[in-house]
């Protein structure tokens, strides 16, 4: 799940961004958790847990979006920051906070999508998620990036990793939510690591030597998710 904070004081802009996000996640099959704030100060006082991306207007009452970005960067060095503003004179200053993008209002939906997909690629590349798995054999710590895919078998989750296989009692829905961006439910019984996909072959997705089925209604969303993760059109 992509976790986004949006600091924007204009109601019309908030409405447009919400519509864009709803449309984007419907088209791409990527769940988004977005929290809106009316000022930078409000955001800094209530930073969402696990925040990955901040969309900031620059000209807001009180603390500016630029100052908000400086403070966020000090707290969350890995945070992706995108400015969305009607002001064009701050593009150079945005480099000081290592902003990912600078969007000038009015922002078109295609331009918004390109920025969001860039953020997803960066987040996907930076992720170092550690899973703690408990079963009858003991406790295991696994890096999410070492997961190839997960399947449901006999009411258990079977994790296929680059080092071997481990299983435990759990639900695919809960694991999917925990892993978040970078993983995709290609079938009701399979969750795949997008970075481990080597190709699509007919109705299947191929991960190294493994071939898994893709549900017909999920194929289009899988193509979009792979395009966002790989950074190229499919």
Automatic annotation (TrEMBL):
Residues 3-120 form the Response regulatory domain. Pfam families: LytTR, Response_reg. Gene3D superfamilies: 3.40.50.2300, LytTr DNA-binding domain (2.40.50.1020). It comes from Faecalibacterium prausnitzii. May play the central regulatory role in sporulation. It may be an element of the effector pathway responsible for the activation of sporulation genes in response to nutritional stress. Spo0A may act in concert with spo0H (a sigma factor) to control the expression of some genes that are critical to the sporulation process. One of its GO terms (molecular function) is phosphorelay response regulator activity. This is Stage 0 sporulation protein A homolog. Keywords: Phosphoprotein. The keyword Phosphoprotein applies. Residues 131-228 form the HTH LytTR-type domain. InterPro entries: CheY-like_superfamily (IPR011006), LytR-like (IPR046947), LytTR_DNA-bd_dom (IPR007492), Sig_transdc_resp-reg_receiver (IPR001789).
């Amino acid at each position: 799940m992509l976790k986004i904070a949006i600091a924007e004081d204009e109601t019309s802009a908030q409405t447009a961004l919400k519509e864009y996000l709803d449309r984007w996640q419907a088209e791409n099959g990527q769940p988004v958790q977005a929290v809106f704030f009316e000022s930078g100060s409000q955001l800094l006082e209530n930073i969402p847990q696990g925040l990955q991306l901040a969309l900031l207007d620059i000209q807001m009452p009180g603390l500016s979006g630029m100052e908000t970005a400086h403070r966020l960067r000090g707290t969350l060095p890995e945070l992706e920051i995108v400015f969305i503003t009607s002001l064009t004179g701050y593009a150079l200053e945005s480099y000081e906070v290592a902003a990912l993008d600078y969007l000038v209002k009015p922002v078109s939906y295609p331009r918004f999508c390109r920025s969001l997909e860039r953020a997803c690629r960066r987040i996907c590349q930076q992720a170092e998620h550690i899973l703690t798995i408990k079963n009858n054999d003991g406790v295991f710590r696994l890096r999410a990036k070492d997961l190839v895919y997960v399947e449901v078998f006999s009411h258990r989750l079977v994790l296929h990793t680059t080092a071997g296989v481990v299983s435990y009692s759990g639900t695919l829905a809960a694991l999917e939510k925990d892993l978040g961006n970078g993983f995709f439910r290609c079938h009701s019984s399979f969750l795949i690591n997008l970075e481990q996909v080597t190709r699509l072959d007919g109705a299947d997705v191929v991960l190294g030597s493994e071939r898994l089925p893709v549900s017909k209604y999920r194929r289009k969303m899988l193509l979009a998710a792979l395009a966002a993760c790989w950074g190229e059109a499919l």
